[in-house]
Amino acid sequence: MIKPRKLPQRMCVGCREMRNKKELIRVVKTPTGLVELDTTGKKPGRGAYLCPEQKCFNLALKGKRLQKALQHEIAEDILDNILGQLQEKNIP
After folding, report:
1. In 3-state terms, what secondary structure has residue 12?
2. What is the model's pTM?
């Protein structure tokens, strides 16, 4: 009998819900200190996961959860850039 394959689970830093890794969007702090979206999920560096929803992004910013997860202060222009990229991905 074949065992069902386990799907990797990650927690959204905004709403704190556990979801399948493929459903979430990864934000990564690269070894050079640059913070950006990781569309492939394979970029090196420290990562944090967000649901593809505007409210989760706002919650992550409000409580500075994204900064805490990445262990790095994030400038406003970078946050605006990430928000713009998330909106391009048609988040509600």
Report:
1. strand
2. 0.86
